[in-house]
Each structure stands twice: as C-alpha cells, then as structure tokens.
Write a structure and sequence with these properties.
By secondary structure, the chain is an all-alpha fold. It has one domain. It is 80% helix and 0% strand. It contains 13 helices and no strands. The radius of gyration is 19 Å and the shape is globular. The two termini are 27 Å apart. 51% of the residues are buried.
C-alpha cells in the first residue's frame, strides 16, 4: 500500500467518525455516553473477532505477551480519551470541545520529536497549524473562558495524541492490525461498561430507541473506522495521520448541517478550505520534493 492510499484510508475513517458525531448526538436523547460507548465498542469487538482469528491462523508468528500488553495499553488510552472528552462536555461548550480536542493535530508531531526522536517533514508544522486554525474557524472562530471541562478536553486531546503515536509505532513492525483493533475494542468496551454500571442508568427501552445509532457506532464508527486507522498508520507517519484524522471535525460539521440542519457559520466554510489545503499540502509537497530531487 502506498502512502497516498494509506492517507485516503485515514480520510475515509475521519468521514465515518464525522457521521459518528451525528449518531452520538441523537443517541444521547435516550442513552448515556458511557453506555453508548460500551455497547458500540462491544459490538465492534464481537464483529471483528472472527476476522482477527482468521488473521491469527494465517500469521506465521503468534502474538507475544509484549504485543498483547501494548494492545491493552492502546485500549486504555482510547477509553481514557473518550471518558475525558465526555466529562469535559458537561462543563464546557461544544465549540470549545471541538476546537480543544483538535489540539492533537499539533500535539502529535511535537511528541514525536520529543519522545520518539522523529523528525517529520517540514511541511507537517505549517500544515498542522493550518488544520488547527481550520478547526477553530469551523467551530465558530471563538472560544469562551476556559473551564475545568476545557482542561479535561485538553487531557482528552493528549490521550488521543499518545494513542495515535503508540498505534503508529507498534503497527509499523507488526502484521496483525485486526488483533490490535479487536483487543483495543474489547478493553474499551469493558472499561466503559464498568464506568456506566457505576454512574449511569439504563433500560431496554433506552437501547431500543438508540439501536440505529448503536449499530452505526459499533459497525462503522468503531469497527470499520478504527480498523482503517490501524491499517493506514502502517504506511504513513503519525504526524500525517493526525492531520488526516483531524478532518473528522470537518465531516462532522458538514454532516451535522446536512442531517441535523445545524447552521455552519460563514467562517466555517473558510475553515473547511484551510483543512483541505493542509491535507493537500502534506500529500503534494513531499512528492514535489522527491520529483525535484530526481530531476536534479
């Protein structure tokens, strides 16, 4: 798989996650967030299990205890990110949350340099800043005074950044993407179930009224999109992956306007253009540099 194909897979994952914002928004009318996450990640783990077993039978080497430990850590990071974001939303605005969650687009390359000693292509830095400005404009071009919820959302962005970096590092030398996805889903589902059982009520009617959204979240937003992320990250850098995955804010805003009839501010369209420009830049500039080097 080429880097361009991998980044297109990440873009598709972001589009599915954008639709997931709509599913989660409407599901919250009947179901609390932890139960929604527990059910959707549980479905994803169950559906993916047969494919992960087929992958295991075809693999020449079994997973090591270190591999399984790393997969569990990634699952814990995903749970932590989802939980921090949800509790943050209780005391912050959706505008603040969407912008602050998108901070991982700049946290990832910074952490790659500081902790992994990786030097991303120079275009990553202006592209990450451009994408962040795009998310800011997409959310209305303003944020209110920072609150405790904003702090939790920044923590959420940090967890997502570590999850992206660790996934990229582990999957580069491992041909078991479905095993990673399945264990990640199972861990997240288990922890969300424990949190939900302690904190949130639930009835069968709640589940029935949210079944369409649960199935979308389980089969597409969790099962398919996170698997696409893992596969795509085998063939591209974590910094590039973060930029393409951050476009979920773009798809979420567009699908929210289309399906939920939410209004997109005029600045939002400029934000969409900036995010599209950032994605084009990280694809075209490195290739342009290679072609110039070959011509010289």
């Amino acid at each position: 798989m080429t880097r361009i194909q991998a980044n297109l897979l990440l873009l598709l994952a972001a589009a599915i996650w954008g639709g997931g914002f709509v599913a989660q928004s409407t599901a919250m009318d009947h179901l609390e967030a932890n139960w929604f996450n527990a059910l959707r990640f549980g479905i994803a783990a169950i559906v993916l299990a047969p494919f992960a077993l087929i992958e295991a039978k075809r693999s020449p080497t079994p997973l090591s205890s270190r591999d399984i430990k790393n997969f569990i850590i990634i699952g814990v990071l995903l749970f932590a990110a989802q939980t921090a974001q949800q509790f943050g939303l209780k005391t912050t605005t959706v505008t603040n949350a969407s912008f602050l969650t998108g901070l991982y687009v700049v946290i990832v390359p910074v952490m790659a340099v500081l902790f992994l000693k990786q030097r991303p292509h120079w275009i990553i830095w202006p592209a990450a800043l451009t994408a962040l400005i795009g998310i800011f404009l997409l959310s209305g071009g303003s944020i209110s005074a920072l609150s405790v919820g904003d702090g939790l959302t920044i923590v959420c962005a940090g967890f997502f950044a570590v999850q992206i970096l660790l996934t990229g590092r582990i999957i580069q030398g491992l041909s078991r993407p479905l095993a990673l996805a399945g264990i990640q889903f199972a861990v997240t589902a288990l922890l969300c179930t424990l949190a939900a059982a302690l904190l949130e009520p639930i009835t069968l009617a709640n589940i029935e009224n949210s079944l369409t959204q649960i199935l979308y979240g389980g089969l597409l937003s969790s099962g398919l999109a996170f698997s696409l992320q893992i596969i795509g990250q085998r063939y591209t850098s974590s910094s590039q992956a973060a930029i393409f995955m951050s476009s979920e804010a773009l798809f979420g805003a567009l699908l929210g306007a289309l399906i939920l009839h939410e209004s997109l501010p005029p600045s939002g369209y400029f934000g969409c253009a900036l995010m599209f420009l950032a994605m084009l830049a990280v694809e075209l500039v490195p290739e342009w540099g290679k072609s110039r080097a070959l011509d010289s």
